[in-house]
Amino acid sequence: AESISYVEAHGTGTPLGDPIELAALTEVFGPSADGPRCGIGSVKTNVGHLDAAAGVASLIKVALSLRNGLLPASLYYTKGNRAVDWANSPFYVVDRARPWTGGSPGQPRRAGVSSFGIGGTNAHVIVEEAPAQRASDAAAAEEVLVLSARTPSALQAMRERLAARLEAEPSAKLSDVAFTLQQGRKAFGHRWSAVCGSVEQALSALRGEDARAVRTGLADAGERPVVFAFPGQGSQYAGMGAELYAQEPVYRETVDRCAELLMPHLGMDVRDALLGREGFEAERLEETWLTQPVLFVAEYALARLWMSVGVKPAALIGHSLGEYTAACIAGVFSLEEGLELVSVRGRLMHRCEAGAMAAVNANAAELTEQWKGTLEIAAVNGPKMSVVTGAAEEVEELVARLQSAGVECRRLRTGGAFHSSRMEPALGELEAALQRVKLSAPRIPYVSNETGEWITAEQAGSAAYWVSHARHTVKFAENAECVLERYPNAVVIEVGPGQTLTSLMRQSVRWGAEHRGVRTLPPGRTGAGERRQWLDSVAELWSGGQSIAWKALHGNRVRNRVELPTYPFERQRYWIEPRLTSAAASAVRGRGLERLEPEQWLYEPMFRPTTSISTWHPKERSGLWVVFEEERGGWMDVLAERLEHANQPVVRIREAAGFERLSERLYGLNPARPEQYALLFDALAAGKGPMRVICSCCSWTQEDSSFGGVTGFLQLSRALQAHAGAAGNSAHLCVVTEGLYNIAGETDVRPERMMVAGLGQVWMQEHALSAFHLADALMPNRRSQAAAMADAILEDFMSAPAGSPRIYRGNQRWMREYEPVHANRQDADNEIAHTAGTYLLIGPFDRKMQAFAQYLVQPSPDPGLKRIVIINEQPVMPDKAVWPAIANGEIPAGDKARQAAAHALRLEELGAEVHFISIASPKQRALTEAVDQAAALFGELTGVLYADWSSEEITFAAASELDGQAVEAELDRTAQGLDELERALAPYRPEFCFIQSSIASELGGLGLSLHAAAAAYTEAFVRRHNELTDSRWRCIQWDAWTSGPVSSDREGRVSELARLAIRPEEGVRLWTKLMACGNSSHCLVSTADFAARRAYALQSHSRQAEQAGPDKGNLALRPRPALPVPLVAPRHDMEQQLADAWSELLGMEPIGIHDDFFNLGGHSLLATQVISWVNSRFPIEFPLKLFFEHPTVAEVAEAIEALLIEKLESMTDEQVSELL
């Protein structure tokens, strides 16, 4: 109590309350014989009684008093309350402002703060002044500035505020500014970072004047898995890591430890090479006995540096020697043992017969046909990236021959022929060295160069494996596919010099838009700029959502927080807007789609009559109508007659042996010859305006086809789109059929014809100048009624919005729409109970299946056992006793088995009994046998959940890229699976059967042609099943599910699909709602208002069509990937030429002038093509090394200008004139 020199009292100023409070304080502090020693006051003299906020007001007052060293006066005080014994009190009232000097000498100032509540309760705190701030240590050469906000506009405001502060305080210590931003601010989604060496550089970055120093990103997706990639021999250079050694203690300490451990094995200090010390000859680093341990040390120390700042790898990948570094990091052997192994390995390989190696831009299988002699494939690095090894003269001869044939290739900087038969003399001694090492199972997963797959504990612990690893081909391309497939949004960090491995991995077919590649050291060979490069990568990771241990980044350096601008809170209006007349109106106005609560996600279909049918009277001739005939008297005949009656230009097409013009308005065509469609449209191309093609499913294929003319539709639509793109006119594909819908029992549903509905929807979305119309029309018996209905169909083909199927019955038009399933329909009366019993989960055990299983094991009124039988293509699961070992990876069984085992164990922990039945496919009675097996083992079947076995190879492809036969094979898989399910369940009476489908059949989606066709068939199949049998199935048309964190696009925005996708944690809650709609036979799940989504999709297509020109129908170039630098367009002609060349070479657009060539997917052999292009257009020799050090359009353009000036200055006037 003696150390407290001020008390902020409750102090209400009442005659009764103040004496009681002071008496209690005096009892605690004790009487004062030397007079009052402690000031007392109350903020209520300033602001009155703030009720619930009274205590916090007191705390704020004391904090400000401590900060300013001043005790403010208690206002309006003249004399003390006579009921208080002031003479013996340790307190005096602070009646005037006075300096606050504190209590005992040398002690910090302390104050007590009271906050009384009802009944005399008191929350009393003691507040002490902050300790004196230690002086900051000297700033590092560069610092990382980080800013983040909830919105782009707030982030921009933060940049402006910070720039204004630094401009006003140019002497600010940049290290403290960086530390404050890193440690004193919460990280939000929209992020900005920059590596700066001075306040001036920081201002330039904040103002947008130095785009190359800036990294931006959207981190709402959360942290990505990190993969460390360790390169092999050939990437090393003398002095690699020297700058990090000088400035980063963790790296320095690790290198020092390794150097000491290596001294007995090498007889030299590897720091001579790593630091490029004076006297060390750089050429010695080409000698394998030294290269391998030096590279190992650099990579190991870099890995420890990354891990010290909180970047921990989820997986590892290495190339040749790099796999040793990966194994050491994974714990297969200790650092001491690893250093000894690479020393022995390097020494033994160095003693082997000399040879040469070359990187060749060619497929390995094709390459082996090109040589004679003893050459071998040392590494397969990509689909067209191979490394050849063997005798030097044979390698030289092959390189010369390939280069003369135009094949890119180059010699590698090595004197050995690694991973070849020339290594065999070293293998015996290498095995002996390995036998002395304790090899353990890896604690971090990594891939094997030997097998191309994930390493197993048995392989990692076998000396024979590591011996074979030194001899055989490095299967790096397969390694890359394994890693990228398991981690579809991974950040791959090159933990070594340059970016060799990340460039190779970008060539993999598995490299997706969500993958990122980051390098640690620059590709140059000077060691300069290494710390800046590393910090730039740290900033890039943070901007992309990774967590960084910023305090560890500063090490033991003293840093202080300083006062900086705070968050620029943005005003948000909460005015209640008037409700729009329809959800579609919201979409048309361009608003984003609101993500609803799961209770509002469910919809069911209904048929709505629109307008009655009337006679068509077109006011003008518009374009050309092309009608594909079928049988006489059918819809095509009627429609063509009505067009001719309305004086519309119409051409009829009939089936013939080959393409021929039979008359001015009649052509013959063989639908089995797809090239004849192109001949037809070329012959009809003279007309102006849109071309409207009318056909039926029977126009392309025989009536008994299982697929409703899918192949014919693809051939016709492809040819029609090509014609439209060339002519610059719109193309309308109008399909008339029947059997899609059954409104009142008037027809039979034909599921195979629904496939065209799905294909057409996507075809229209993928091509701006196209429109797809679908009419489901039941032919009337009377000719006059047929003519009236044909008029209505033609009117809609000409003027109605495209995309939505229309139904024609009698004299009425109908539309199928989806209405929300209201909350009052989701109740216990309708709910399908998850009772005890046997449940079959048939199909891929994906997120939806897992969520359903999780729903089943929820607590329910029925306490009985729930058996879950999973029937799919999963490899045969062994006995349950080994499931834990499979789940944690101790027993290698593949990713699918590992995930299935882990989920099954969780279900069993919750009380379920889980069984697996494996079948090759759902057809050929395999599914029936599996269902019978489950029924025989467990008795009556309670419920079934079915999902289609889908082929991953062609699921995502544009309509124009699909092969008709492959599509029919895949759709046959869908159809036969449902047929087999119907047969399999016929003898049983499960309480429910859910068939999973997709919302793609209604909304389409770019690249989802096959998906939409299969979904449309599935939904129609369920409708037909329910009409023809007495067992009720329910079709669930799912919205997209996300399998991981939500990601952002290259402009830092979360994509609409990702934002709206169903998240795994919402699955159980969603299944609960679905089960409560017990009477519905069809449920559609949409996370946003479905009517708005359809309107939005159609409106987006309309805008696209309006903006498209003759050459914009089908762009071949890929979009620019997400990059950590903003897109900056070319500023002058030379930059534009370079950007165009890169775009053509990489198959990508647009190209920004600060985009790194290698981050765009370029690699060393493509870089040589860039150099060739530059040298062919400018009278210079552009050095390849210069390109690697400056791989952006802006830097290359600047270098070209400098080289041109240098050349011109060295030339005579006559030479300059001749050149110009």
List the helices and strands and how they pair.
Blueprint: E1 4-8, H1 17-29, E2 38-41, H2 44-47, H3 54-68, E3 70-71, E4 91-93, E5 98-99, E6 110-113, E7 125-128, E8 143-149, H4 152-168, H5 174-183, E9 190-196, H6 199-206, E10 214-218, E11 226-230, H7 242-247, H8 249-266, H9 271-274, H10 288-308, E12 315-318, H11 321-330, H12 335-351, E13 356-360, H13 364-367, E14 376-382, E15 385-390, H14 392-404, E16 409-411, H15 424-435, H16 457-460, H17 463-471, H18 476-486, E17 491-494, H19 500-506, E18 516-519, H20 530-543, H21 550-554, H22 583-588, E19 602-612, E20 624-628, H23 635-645, E21 650-655, E22 660-663, E23 666-669, H24 675-683, E24 691-695, H25 710-727, E25 731-737, H26 751-766, E26 770-777, H27 783-799, E27 806-809, E28 812-820, E29 837-842, H28 847-856, E30 866-872, H29 883-887, H30 895-909, E31 913-918, H31 926-938, E32 941-946, H32 964-985, E33 992-998, H33 1000-1003, H34 1009-1028, E34 1034-1038, H35 1056-1060, H36 1067-1075, E35 1082-1085, H37 1090-1107, E36 1118-1119, H38 1133-1146, E37 1148-1149, H39 1164-1177, H40 1184-1189, H41 1193-1209, H42 1213-1219
Parallel strand pairs: 1-2, 1-6, 2-4, 11-12, 11-17, 17-18, 20-21, 20-24, 21-23, 24-25, 25-26, 26-27, 29-30, 29-32, 30-31, 32-33, 33-34, 34-35, 36-37
Antiparallel strand pairs: 3-5, 6-7, 8-9, 9-10, 13-15, 13-16, 14-15, 19-28, 19-35, 22-23, 27-28
Helix pairs in contact: 4-6, 8-10, 8-12, 10-11, 10-12, 12-15, 15-17, 23-27, 24-25, 25-26, 25-32, 26-34, 28-36, 31-32, 32-34, 38-39, 38-41
